[in-house]
Every structure is written in structure tokens, then in C-alpha cells.
Design the sequence.
């Protein structure tokens, strides 16, 4: 059996491989297909042939170049992300089982959550009608969809034309051997924010929540240093680490006590699970709070709920004994997941659906 696995241009990008922990999931998918007995074919796309002038141009140029290497009947299965896959799925023909993986919410939910927020910062919200059409069309064309979390699965199930049983879930895990608590609890009280997009990840709500709180230091990692940070983070002491290689994140996690990502839209926050494995108590929005039990192993807060964020951080600062209890519960929840479990769930879905 042959499987075409077309993960998009980021898969082989050296910088993405250095900084993005989510690339590991793509490796797991490839390993899973091989363990199921597939010969895995990954289209080779020269980066020089990818048009970077816009998101749509990038998606279309990758898909066209990858499709040029394929022919009808080349494979028994196709696996790829929605936007990058239409031409390739068409080229392979109707008899190929076509599976797409989704790591972000459906476009209607992203529009609802983000468009207004980006306009407040006078930044363009890059989800054009063409992009929406490509995503929806690919999802309707494919045989099955694999979502990274229940929340993401549900947003896609609510899209017109996507039946409930067409979406399955292979939940993400964490490498608890790589991410683990420090031997000695760090001094002070440090709250960690991790996110490549501070607007989408809700940094401003965390900053507002920390205004005037004593004894709290904010640590910011995973994004380019913010040029106006002294204005943005006016109030709490803060440290910026910029883009941190994924292999070096352990040292930052282990120096913090709480991880707070009050995101407005997120497929799943891998940093939340990694932080939990290191003993940090998570505070986050509903869609990324599925990995813990609210009030036991973390705190779920509403979108843009600055007062709730402030209240939870204050509780954890003022009651270190309770924080220790929650930290232990968070670690238990994190280590109950694993990348091996993710891969097995993925393999089970492929096996079940391709035989049905």
C-alpha cells in the first residue's frame, strides 16, 4: 500500500523544526502510516517555487507543485491539511481514501473570535474569501477528518456539509520525559505566557489582569520581542525571551509557577500541556482548557475575562499550599497523555475508516 503524505511547506523548514513543537505531530503521522504498512510518499517542493506574496498564494503554489508529482492511482491514501490539498486530492482520483487533519478551528469560529480583535490593533486579519473557500471545499471533498481536540472537532462539525461522523479525534499529548518539573521550586512567583501571535493568544488580557499585582513577574516567550513592550506591559515586571528553540523551553518552564494563555482562538495549546508536565498551574480559555479539570488541575476563564484571570493568579500567589496541590494534579493530567497515545489513536482512525 502507498500513502501520499503532503504536510505543507513548514514540515521541512529548518527554522520551524527548531522552534515549533507541533512539527513532532507530523513526524508521528508519518511513523503511524509506516507502522500500518504504507509506503509513505512525501512530495518534494522546492521552496523557491512557493509564492510567499500572500497566504492564499503560498497555499496554492505549494498544492500545485506537489500535485505535479502525482498521478491518478499513485496511492491508496492521501493525508494533508485542508487548504494545501485540493489539487493533490483531485489529481489522485476518486478511488483514493482522502484524509485531512485539522489543528485549528473552523473558519466561521476563527472569524467570530479574531476579526474584531485584529481591527483594534489596526492589523489585517488574514482569512480571505479564497482561503475560506479552499478550506471548506477540501473538507467537503475528503473522506475523513482528524481533529487535534474535541473543541476543534465540534467547530468543524458545525460547518455546513460536514457530518458528525466524518470527524474523529486524535488528541495531542506531551513528552513527559522531555518536560518535567525542576528538582527545587523556583524562587518568586513567575507567570509565563507562550505564544507566537500575542493578539490571538490574548496577551493584552493577561497584562491588564496583572496591573498592580505585587510580587508577580510576567515572562513572555515564543514570539518576536515586542517593540513597544514597555508600553504594552506597563505595570508588572516582565522579561522577554523572544523566539526560543523548542529544546530550550524546559529551562523556562522550570523557572515559572503558572502558565497563562488567555487565547481567543486556538486549536490546542501545546505549551499548556508542556507547562503542566513541568508543574505549572494552567490558566486558559475554554477551548484550550480541555486538557485539565477546572478548579482541580488548572483554571478555565472566559474569553477576555480580565477579572477572572486576576482572581485566579491572586489565589495561586497567595496560597502556595493550594498551588502545590494543583501543580501535582496538573502533572498527573499531563503525564496521562503521550505522543505514543496520539499516534495509536491516529492509526486506529486510519485503520477503521479506510476499511469502512
Sequence:
Amino acid at each position: 500500500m502507498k500513502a501520499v503524505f503532503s504536510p505543507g511547506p513548514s514540515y521541512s523548514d529548518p527554522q520551524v523544526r527548531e522552534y515549533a513543537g507541533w512539527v513532532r505531530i507530523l513526524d508521528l503521522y508519518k511513523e503511524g502510516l509506516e507502522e500500518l504498512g504504507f509506503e509513505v510518499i512525501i512530495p518534494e517542493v522546492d521552496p523557491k517555487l512557493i509564492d510567499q506574496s500572500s497566504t492564499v498564494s503560498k497555499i496554492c503554489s505549494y498544492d500545485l507543485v506537489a500535485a505535479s508529482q502525482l498521478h491518478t492511482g499513485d496511492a491508496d491514501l492521501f493525508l494533508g491539511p485542508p487548504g494545501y490539498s485540493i489539487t493533490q486530492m483531485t489529481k489522485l482520483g476518486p478511488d483514493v481514501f482522502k484524509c485531512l487533519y485539522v489543528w485549528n478551528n473552523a473558519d466561521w469560529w476563527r472569524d467570530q473570535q479574531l476579526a474584531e480583535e485584529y481591527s483594534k490593533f489596526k492589523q489585517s486579519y488574514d482569512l480571505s474569501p479564497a482561503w475560506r473557500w479552499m478550506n471548506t471545499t477540501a473538507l467537503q471533498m475528503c473522506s475523513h477528518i482528524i481533529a487535534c481536540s474535541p473543541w476543534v472537532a465540534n467547530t468543524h462539525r458545525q460547518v455546513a456539509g460536514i457530518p458528525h461522523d466524518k470527524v474523529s479525534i486524535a488528541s495531542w499529548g506531551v513528552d513527559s520525559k522531555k518536560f518535567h518539573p525542576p528538582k527545587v521550586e523556583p524562587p518568586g512567583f513567575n507567570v509565563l505566557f507562550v505564544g507566537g501571535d500575542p493578539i490571538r493568544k490574548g496577551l493584552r488580557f493577561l497584562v491588564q489582569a496583572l496591573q498592580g499585582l505585587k510580587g508577580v513577574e510576567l515572562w513572555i516567550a515564543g514570539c518576536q520581542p515586542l517593540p513597544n513592550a514597555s508600553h504594552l506591559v506597563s505595570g508588572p515586571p516582565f522579561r522577554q525571551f523572544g523566539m526560543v528553540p523548542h529544546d530550550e523551553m524546559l529551562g523556562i518552564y522550570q523557572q515559572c509557577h503558572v502558565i497563562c494563555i488567555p487565547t481567543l482562538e486556538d486549536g490546542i495549546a501545546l505549551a499548556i500541556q508542556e507547562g503542566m508536565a513541568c508543574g505549572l498551574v494552567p490558566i486558559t480559555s475554554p477551548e484550550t482548557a480541555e486538557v485539565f479539570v477546572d478548579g482541580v488541575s488548572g483554571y478555565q476563564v472566559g474569553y477576555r475575562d480580565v477579572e477572572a484571570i486576576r482572581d485566579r493568579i491572586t489565589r495561586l500567589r497567595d496560597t502556595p499550599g493550594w498551588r502545590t496541590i494543583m501543580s501535582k494534579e496538573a502533572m498527573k493530567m499531563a503525564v496521562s497523555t503521550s505522543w505514543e497515545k496520539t499516534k495509536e489513536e491516529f492509526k486506529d482512525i486510519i485503520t477503521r475508516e479506510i476499511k469502512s
In short: Residues 175 and 268 are 16 Å apart (CA to CA). The first strand starts at residue 2 and ends at 5. The chain is about 40% helix and 15% strand.
